[in-house]
Amino acid sequence: MTDMTEKSPHSEEVSDHPLATKKDINGDSIVDAERTLPVYDNKYTDSSVSDDEISDHDLRTLRRVADRLPPAAWLVAVVELCERFTYYGITGPFMNYMQNAPGGLRPGAIGLGQSKASALNYFFQFWAYVTPILGAVIADQYWGKYKTISIFAGIYAVGLLIIVTTSLPVAIDNGASLGGLITAMIVIGLGTGGIKSNVSPLIAEQYTNTKRYIRELKTGERVIVDPSVTIQSLFMIFYLCINIGSLSAIATTELELHVGFWAAYLLPFLFFFIGIFALIIGRPYYVKKPPRGSVVPNAFRILWIASTKRKLIAAKPSYRAEHGLSAVPWTDRFVDEVNRALIACQVFVFFPIYWVVYGQMVNNFISQAGEMDTHGIPNDIMQNIDPLAIIIFIPICDSLVYPYLRRVGIPFKPITRIFFGFIFAAIAMAYAAIVQHLIYTAGPCYEYPLACDASEGGLIPNNVHVAIQTPAYFFIAMSEIFASVTGIEYAYTKAPSSMKSFVMSMFLLTNAFGSAIGIAISPTAKDPDMVWTYTSLAIVTFFFGCVFFLVFRRYNKDEDVLNSLDNETFDELVEHDAQGTLNTTA
Q1: Omega of the bond leading into 227 within 30 degrees of 0 (cis)
Q2: Rounded CA gap, 325 and 317, in Å?
């Protein structure tokens, strides 16, 4: 393997320049004070660029572009792709495995029915998104991200082995499938939790440049290479890898239908070891930041002081020394970092509603497809329209839509993107309600699909083609691109360097809360009530999306300020904030 830190053959040594302090990952010249230096690369001109500081005029007028990503980031992306291949490969057949009994129209093993199967599916999602808190605390405080991911990957593999063995025909025939499933859910949920909260911060940490600088393109255009745009692009690629991995459900649902559930679960189990191999071979090249000790406990102590004193500034050592209060083991800057983390966590408050909608895709949408004429394809294969749409539209958004909007002066900042994610999710639920109405108005069983005598024991579905589900999955996919991808990006960019995994786990925790809401409403997931279930979700999601935008749109103005907190002190940034809108709780 080539050296991950190898310098670009087109770069030039500039260490004798008075402003030069380091080079970027391409070997291009950069400086610490957001200045510009000569750039030599086949993408750019061979002429020198001015080394003046980036002026306010340049910041307002120059187009912002993403930097290249280091090879180590791609290796982390491979690890995530394999983990997601495994996760979605096993969860793809879950609904049929739980809902249906053997010998029916659709494949099955346990026979819990739609409501109970939905509740158990939501339990697994809840558990898988609570455990990232444990993984985050262990990584930030004790082991670091790489070691935490490696150890929890071993736990994950044990859970996979359990579900493979308990889904064998002999295990199903002897009633071991339900107990084995629940045990596997607990073990896999623990394993994936240790990976989830750490893999996205780990991939972002492979890009180490934190300063903006100017490049001159071969066309003569001067552009600002912006780390925040690079991170946005990086997380788009990261999410693209997630959805490439999630296409495993195509294979596992076919194996479920034509071979058996054991084969459907064996494939992800074997594929998981490719990710472990990528994790091992990349070890010498990864940027691995060490754990920072008692960061999370200290953060909670700061919040406790802020709540008792009714102001965050009371937790600062300088304030406490001035007012004769007891000494604390942190710095003023760390208090500022906790304040920024609070801003991110406030934005996450509305996400549980979004995740309730997202959860419909992996339970009730599958049941809905099972009530329609599938023309020989598995009813649970339709969910793969979502990752296919994401794989198509993420490059379009990243390479065409977002750059075009920046070029015409529309930055399309995170809060706005998340708002659009909520709107697309609401549209998906409204469309699902229309599809359900069409099912209820078609024979032979109308409002009770597969449950009337005319269905011949549940073997004849209502006469509606399953393809009409497609737009619902497309709208969910677009909502993910805007809401989920941006949420991951926001969790990383707004978290202080010492709390990246923990803040990411807080974002993932919103999915657990959404699953808890899903468990609460799962009794409504039954015929003939599904039209009202989807309609209610559409209305609620639209309403909370609008409230979200009204409450948090002010943070769009402070995006650059908040993203610069790793490089300057909080007080200085408030003074430099041209908008004068930065909201602090101090």
Answers
A1: no
A2: 9
Mean pLDDT of the chain: 83
Mean pLDDT confidence for 164-172: 95
Amino acid at 297: P
**Among all chains, which residue has been given the structure tokens 């639920």?**
429
User: Pick from 137, 105, 161: which is nearest to 373 by CA?
Assistant: 105
User: For residue 38, is the peptide bond before it cis, meaning its omega torsion is within 30 degrees of 0?
Assistant: no
Dist. CA 567–CA 470, nearest whole Å? 46
Cα→Cα distances 408→349, 370, 395, 401, 509, Å: 32, 46, 19, 11, 36
pLDDT in the model for residue 36:
32
From 146, 288, 242, select the one nearest 488 (Cα to Cα): 242
Overall residue count recorded for the chain in this entry: 586
Question: pLDDT tens across 340-390, in order?
Answer: 788 778 889 999 999 999 989 888 999 999 999 999 898 888 989 999 999
Q: Which of the pair, 28 or 466, is modelled with greater confidence?
A: 466
Tell me: the pLDDT tens digits for 11-51?
Answer: 333 333 333 333 333 333 333 333 333 333 334 443 333 33
**CA–CA separation, 380 and 357 (whole Å):** 17
* Closest alpha carbon to 363 in 100, 89, 119: 119
End-to-end CA distance of the chain: 50
At residue 439, the 3 state secondary structure works out as helix
The predicted pLDDT at position 224 comes to 87
Q: Tokens for 535? A: 């309609």
Phi and psi at residue 218, in whole multiples of 5°? Answer: -60, -25
CA distance 169 to 180: 13
Angle at CA of residue 539, ends 538 and 540, nearest 5°: 95
Q: What is the pTM of this model?
A: 0.74
- Contact between 340 and 348 under an 8 Å Cβ cutoff? The reply is no
